[in-house]
Structure formats: C-alpha cells, structure tokens
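Recap quiz, item 2
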Amino acid sequence: MNIRMIRADLLRLRKHRGLFWWSIVLTSGAVAAFYGIALGFHLHDPAQYGPAGGVENLRRGLWVLSMVGGVGAAIVGATAGTADTSSGVFRDLVVTGRSRVGLFAARAAGAVAFWVPLAVAAYATLMVLTFALAAGTATPTLAAIAKDGGWVVAVTTVTLLAGLGVSATIGSRGISIGVLLGWQLAVSQVLENVHVLGVTREALLTAAASRLEPFTGDAVVVPMSAAAAVVAMAGWALLPLVAGAWRTRARDA
Amino acid sequence: MHTTHLTDGDWVVEATGLTKRFGDRLAVDGVDLRVARGSAFGFLGPNGAGKTTMIRMLLGLTPATAGSMRLLGRPVPDERTAALAHVGAIVEEPSFHGHLTGRENLAVAAACRAPEAHARIDPALDRMGLLDRADDRVRTYSMGMRQRLGIARCLLADPVLLILDEPTNGLDPAGILEFRAFVHDFVAEGRTVFLSSHLLDEVEKICDSVAIVDRGRIRTQGPIAAVSAGARPRVLIACDDNAAASALLAADPAVAHVQAADGGLSVELVDRDDAAVADLNRLLVDASIAVHRLEPARVSLEERFLEVTTQLGVPT
C-alpha cells in the first residue's frame, strides 16, 4: 500500500456522485434537518419548546448524527468494500502484482479518508447551529466540543470500517448494508436489554458507543469500564477488517 | 516443439505440469507450455478448453493445483510482484469503474504500478486514440473503446509481455484490423504478445506460433506453419466415378478418411508419403476409374485445429 493507492481509492469514492451526495445528506443534511425541525417547534411554541441550539439540544443532535451518520457510514463502507469486485476492476488491479492485502488496506484507508472529512463537516455544521440557535442558553465548552466531536467521528468511522470489512467478506454491498443496519438498529438494541446475557453485552458496538458517549449523568443500559468499551469498539473495527483482508487474499479474481 | 534452440532466458512464459482442478473437474491437465520472447503467441482453443483458467493461474488470479510456472524468468507465485511489474494483461474483458473517466481509470491502475506509470497515462491514451475522450466517463464508451482503454492500461507497465484474453470480442471489423496493427507494432517493439482466442483466423493472421488447447491439455504447439504441417496430409482427387473411387480408397490401409469435396474427393492419408499417393492413383486406374486431377491439399491451421480438437474420446 502506498499514498498513491490511497489517493486513487479516495478518487474512486469521491467521484461516485450518488454516494457522495447521499453521504452529505445523511451527515450534514441530517443535522440541518434536525435543527430545522427543532427551530420550527421553538418558533411555533417557545414556551413549550426551548431554543433549538445550545447544550440542551446538543445531545439530541449528536444522537441524530451518530445514528443517521452511522447509516451513511455503513453505506460508504459497504460500497468501498465491494466496488472493485462488483465492477470487475479487482482482477485488473491484482494483475499489477500488488498484494491483495495491500489493495484491501488502501481501500480501507481511502474509505476513511473519504468519510472523516464528511463526518467532521457534519459535526462542524452541528456546532455552528448549536451556537447560532442557542438564543442565550448555555453553549458547550471547547473541551466538550472536542470530546463530542471525537466521539461521533470515532463511532461512525468504526461503523464505516465494519461495513467495509463485512462487505469485503460477504462480497455483496446490499446484503452487507442490510445485515449491518439490521444488527445496529434492531438486533443490537434488543440484545442490550437482554440482561441474562450479562457481560457478553459489552461486546455490542451500540453498548460500547453508549458507554463512551460524552454526556455525563446519562444512564447506560450495559454498565462497563471505559477500557472495555474502547476494546469493543476497536474489535468492531478490526475483526471485520481482518476477515475482509483474509477473504480478499483468498478470493479467486 | 520447434523452438528448442532457444535458451532459458528467451522464454517469457514457462509452465510445467500446470494443473487446475475445480472439485472433480479437471480444467487444466498437466500443461507444459513455453512462449518465446518477442513473438506473437496464439493460445488457441474452443470455448471451455481451459485457456482463461491457464491465464488466470499464470497471473496469480487463481492458485494452481499442481505444477510450476515462470513469468519473465521469475518463478510465480513466489516472485509474482516482480514478474507482473512488467506484464500487462486483459483477462476475459477489461473492466473499469464506469463513473470514472478513462484518464481517471488509468490513474487508479497507475497507482498500483511503479511511480513512472503515471507519466505513461497520456501517451498510452494517445497511442490508443483515446486522448479526445479521455475525460469522458467510461460508461459512455463503446465496447471497442473499452478494449482500447484496456490495452492502454496494459501499456502503463511498459510491458515486456502482454497477455490478452479474447481481445477482439465485441470489436467490429475495423476495430479488429486496428487491433492487429497494434499487436504487430508491439511485437516490432520487442514485446511479447500472448493472445488467447477461439478465433482461428485471428490467430493465424496475427501470431507467429501457436498452442492448441482442448479439454485442459495442450494438443500441439509450435510455429503456425509447423503446427499446420503436423496435420494428416490430404490429397484432392477428381475422377469419373466418385462413388466407386470412394469405396475403393476407403478400404486402402494408407487412407485414413475419404469425403466428398468440391465435386471430387478429399482423401486424408495416414502418413505423409508420396509413394502412397502414387499407389492410390494406380489403384484407381487399375479399377478403370479415370483420374482427372490428383493434387496435395494445403492444410490450414483451421483444419489442424479441427483435427486436434474433435478427437473426442481419443486417448492422447
């Protein structure tokens, strides 16, 4: 893998217009829509609904970005993981003599390089709206801004890498997106509440992400140490990648 | 083989006992193959003969079940990266990202090659006549343009060896003529072109030497003239009683096969033997059959190909 290969993978994703615009819709667009709705409620009934911005709504805004942005991350990851094989270009890249694992690694790095600026831009949008619509209410500190931003970018990037690894393993973009979103948005949420599973629930990405959520005082469904949550999130990024790299290496091109 | 005078360094492809098995099916069966440097080599066989599987093994796209291979003198897969750095290949049909332009697609491929590959993008597009359309998305390209873009992608490696699998599929007659010119130019530049095809005419017009593959095995290989000459000799006979002559000749042990052809008979001999031809003439004359014409038939590559690939069930 080299920087030229990563740039080539980034080019391939960036020039995919549908993917690019949907990614913006599911990140910055989702944030703008959330604050637009919150502003509408506030303007309609200020007594019932407080200002759209400020710390009060920041948590909800972050939740929207992590959930809807997570959907976008899964789509981008799954697309990046299967683009070469579905187009048939994978074979033409393998015959250059490059190692398949190197090609896969460049694919993953390119996907991250594509995703992180989008996630950061969405978070910047969120922060601008948080301050602009605060209407005199409390606004987040610099430390909170950094912490919240790090969390939402990390959570969505882990989802991106999981999507990439799963799709490279399965070989199907559509099935991978379906499996990942079904797991994250439905199955995982249910399992978090099945107490009989005990500490095994700590392995759930949603549980680990909730544990690391920067808001203090919020009850978490699955209590665990921060270290355990970090390990769980790292596992959700690395294990699918290892599986994807193995499948890419073993696949007939 | 008619090229045994060449030394080891003169072979760009060497395969020994190359075998590929898919479950119970033997796709490539102990193939021994050598391709001389600087030649246009035809890899000829009917669809499903194992040509593409053989190429995929050479390029490391699928592992071999058994056997050994060398590309440009380097053992593969052990030194696959170094060997493929100077190989350009199109397997089956060239694939591209349709949403990228021709130039961008080449940039993606160049990123996987040596750093100087990037500087070859425009010259390659120019050579293939695609410079004017280089900034159009590939999804708007015709089949012929995609084939040319595929060859342009091969040229990014400044290849010593070009492996082209069915490269004229989908090309119109003008495109095929253009492709032949490209191959001749590549060989003139000292490159080797390994051309896999099921089109006899194409291989005969483009290539210097050929291997005929059928049911996973190389049936014969060598210079085209030598391979064609390896076919059973035939003579064309015109006489006044085809039916009687046919019956008489079919019973002769020197004759392998008799069939009607162009108002006369096409007689396939067991061996290349001038005396046998004279004997046949005598046989007919002794039977009071007037022979108007008796001449050796030129055996084309097509006839040799058909002879080799239609021996179903014949042990080889």
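Chain A touches chain B through 27 residues (CB under 8 Å).
Residues 87 and 187 of chain A are 32 Å apart (CA to CA).
End of item.
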